[in-house]
Amino acid sequence: MxxxxxxxxxxxxxxxxxxxxxxxxxxxxxxxxxxSKGGTIIAKNIVMACAGCNVERGNSTDWVPxxxxxxxxxxxxxxxxxxx
Length: 84
Fold this sequence. Notes:
two-stranded antiparallel ribbon; alpha+beta; two-stranded antiparallel sheet
C-alpha cells in the first residue's frame, strides 16, 4: 500500500496524495459554498478535495459529490454490439 495516499476526494472519489504538493491528487480544503459566493469557513462548509477537482470546480456550486452520483448508464449502442 502506498503511504502517500489517504482518504478519497469528496468530488471524484480518487485517493488523495498527502506529500506531493505539485500533484493533481494533492489533498486540499474545498468550500462547498465558495467564499466568493458567501460561503463561510465553518467546518460544515469545508470538504477535503484533490487539487485537480478543487481547481477545476473553481467557484461552481453545481458539482455532485462522488458518493451521491447515480450509477453510470450503459450507452444504448452497447445493446446492439453485445456478443450473444
